[in-house]
């Protein structure tokens, strides 16, 4: 890669610069010129950004800026901008502020009347959305999933009737468990597991949530960075959920059937997952006995 020529002095301000999520060729000419003209680069990990700068034959002062030191570093960064410095904010990969703490720096810079501008570029979210083959007119980016199963189920449940495609980041080791929790909570929705986007081994696997969970349980966790895209809920399912009370239906069914039969009947009636309905039927049955 050719070395970037002499850079022009940038006006003082905060420059939000998107960097490649995998393929180094995805950086824009303007982004490279801005990195070359920066007085200081604020980054998540100086080692990661250092490798990126080396690829473009650039040497620039860097300081770490992340959620753990943000409160300490923000005043320092703002002071440098106020003194005339051009500071570039980057994340380890992709567009800053997408699931990282940069918004606080932008907020304080804007409030202080400092110049803030953003250079558009790579991001895993729209890249995965464009490859998933699912509706794109409305989507909700959910960030990283919770670590624990119960927290994940609650997380998915909160968006059960959201009429938008859901997108979130997941680790390979939690992929199967996350897909299972999503299937148990949201039902057999269409989904896509997008892996290693823009890289050599890019892969998009599509199917419903149950099918995908079965696939990766059989094959083992894949390598690389993962984005999961799940199709939206429907107006019909949201309307049905509001009209029919699950507990009342279960209680009525339990008067005439066993727990197993009642849960199977209600799950089919409401279009819900049998596992979740069965668990609730057991709870109601125990309460009734008590």
CATH fold node name of the largest domain: Methyltransferase, Cobalt-precorrin-4 Transmethylase, Domain 2
CATH top level of the largest domain is: Alpha Beta
Q: In this structure, how is the largest beta sheet organized?
A: 5 strands, parallel
What's the total helix number? Answer: 12
Reported CATH architecture of the largest domain: 2-Layer Sandwich
The succession of helices and strands, N to C, reads EHEHEHEHEHEHEHEEHEHHHH
Which regions contain 5 or more consecutive residues with pLDDT less than 50?
A: 1-6, 236-243
Describe, in short, the structure shown.
The protein is α/β, with parallel strands linked by helices and 290 residues long. The protein is built from twelve helices and ten strands.
Structural commentary:
The protein is of the alpha/beta class. The protein folds into three domains: 13-122, Cobalt-precorrin-4 Transmethylase, domain 1 (3-Layer(aba) Sandwich); 125-235, Tetrapyrrole methylase, C-terminal domain (Methyltransferase, Cobalt-precorrin-4 Transmethylase, Domain 2), CATH 3.30.950.10; 244-289. 44% of the residues lie in helices and 17% in strands. It has twelve helices and ten strands. Strand 8 and strand 9 form a beta hairpin. The N and C termini lie far apart (74 Å). The relative contact order is 0.11. The model is unreliable at 1-6 and 236-243 (pLDDT under 50).
